[in-house]
Design a protein that fits this description.
Blueprint (H helix, E strand, L loop, with lengths): L3 E3 L11 E3 L1 H14 L5 E8 L5 E8 L7 E5 L2 E5 L4 H4 L2 E8 L2 E7 L5 E2 L5 E3 L18
Parallel strand pairs: 1-5, 2-7, 3-6
Antiparallel strand pairs: 3-4, 4-10, 5-6, 7-8, 9-10
InterPro entries: ATAP (IPR016092), ATAP_core_dom (IPR000361), FeS_cluster_insertion_CS (IPR017870), HesB-like_dom_sf (IPR035903)
Organism: Deinococcus phoenicis
Protein name: HesB/YadR/YfhF
């Protein structure tokens, strides 16, 4: 297995590939504790679809796959596959609560547009994957 491990932030260390907010880490810790999976982390990935072209996905995962980038931030293990990493580099996973409930979201500096519900996005110059991305937020 060839995984890249990014250390916890400290003085003079370059920006992490991906990070998690303090509130996001608290919520993730509670979910991970309930998962029953030992040494599990939060896998963050990109898939095609959604109203803006790409859609975020997250899952509790106790597997480290070949090519994964693994970042430990605020005590949470974040796993990103090699195909998703370029689109997620510099992003922060956060947890937001609103009148509709709450959930994880991704603050992505690479996104040039996103849908109103914050679950999908597009980057500069990218088209929606073939035949996808024309629906509204309800089509995720």
């Amino acid at each position: 297995m060839t995984a890249t491990l990014t250390p916890e932030p400290s003085g003079g260390v370059p920006a992490q590939d991906i990070s998690i907010s303090e509130f996001g880490a608290q919520k993730a810790q509670a979910i991970l504790a309930q998962s029953g999976k030992e040494n599990a982390g939060v896998r963050v990935f990109i898939k095609s679809g959604g109203c803006s072209g790409y859609q975020y996905g997250m899952a509790i995962d106790d597997r480290e796959l070949e090519g994964d980038t693994i970042v430990m931030d605020r005590g949470i293990k974040l796993l990103v596959d090699r195909m998703s990493l370029p689109l997620l580099r510099g992003s922060e996973v956060d947890f937001v609560e609103n009148m509709m409930g709450g959930g994880f979201t991704v603050n992505n500096p690479n996104a040039t547009s996103s849908c109103g519900c914050g679950h999908s996005f597009r980057t500069d110059g990218s088209q929606s994957p073939e035949g996808e991305g024309s629906g509204g937020c309800g089509s995720h």
